[in-house]
Design goal:
By secondary structure, the chain is of the alpha/beta class. The protein contains 4 helices and 6 strands. The protein is 40% helix and 29% strand. It is globular, with a radius of gyration of 13 Å.
Length: 111
């Protein structure tokens, strides 16, 4: 499990989640995004292309981050959800909270 952070040419902070987003590592994701937010970044994309599983605490941290980013006028988008993860977001109605794109390129283009 790891997180890779990069900034694309449009200035979007892209965080790639490699593995699972679960109770044991959710704080690391929160820390990485919070540091960028505190540094002045306002556009974020979490790439789940390499992610197979997100537990309830992982969903919770995404909701928390989304709220915090919106409070400062920012935007958090998601991309690369596999079929199971997309179903999870639909069942929990989180697909109405997040802008979800099929690919990182599509998500970045939407900013």
């Amino acid at each position: 499990m790891s997180f890779a952070v990069r900034k694309d040419p449009k200035g979007v902070v892209v965080v790639t989640v490699d593995g699972q987003l679960i109770v044991g590592n959710r704080h690391e994701l929160k820390q990485k995004i919070t540091e960028a937010l505190d540094a002045g970044d306002r556009r974020f994309l979490v790439d789940f292309t390499k992610t197979g599983y997100i537990d309830s605490s992982g969903l919770g941290v995404l909701v928390s981050l989304s709220r915090r980013i919106r409070e400062v006028g920012g935007d958090l988008r998601l991309a690369g959800l596999n079929e199971d993860l997309r179903t999870l977001f639909e069942l929990t109605k989180l697909d109405t909270l997040f802008n979800i794109a099929d690919t990182t390129a599509a998500a970045i283009a939407g900013f």
